[in-house]
Amino acid sequence: MELVNEIPLKPLSVHEFAREGEKLKLPEGASILRAGYSQDRAHLLAAHSGCSVEGTAESGRILLHDCDATRGDSGSALLLKTQDGDYRILGVSVAVRTYGAQDYGVAVPSVNFREQLSTRNLIP
After folding, report:
1. Residue 65 near residue 107, CB atoms below 8 Å
2. 3-class DSSP state of 103
3. Residues facing 13 on adjacent strands
4. pLDDT above 70: residue 47
């Protein structure tokens, strides 16, 4: 198959976190979206928008979020919606875990893999 017209897609940029000591500084009031292929609809991209980062754990090496997740969602992109409506890669969703009495989505923040992608020229 050959497309008649080019699709104007551009790669997403990776969010650059600021740090406060060992902790990640999170964007205030940030709206995030988790998009991936869940077990219950493995051939259809599913997204949960309007969720938020609830905090961090493990000295900022893990983001805790409130996006819905189920089996198969590991590896889903966690995207930050910017004020101008663009999206940036915030992290990769990897699990659901209980901290205290609360269940959270768990993600690896982009700060943990940004440098490796950059040195391989895989991000803009």
Report:
1. yes
2. strand
3. 88
4. yes
**Among all chains, which residue has been given the structure tokens 């979206």?**
33
- Please, are residues 14 and 61 in contact by the beta-carbon 8 Å criterion? no
Which helix (H) or strand (E) is 56 found in, with range? strand 53-57
CA distance 1 to 58: 47
Yes or no: say if 82 and 89 are a contact pair by the CB < 8 Å rule: no
| Spatial separation of the C-alpha atoms in residues 41 and 79, rounded to whole Å | 20
Amino acid 4: pLDDT: 93
Cβ 87 vs Cβ 81: under 8 Å: yes
Q: What is the DSSP letter of 59?
A: T
* CA neighbor of 15 nearest in space, from 53, 57, 68: 53
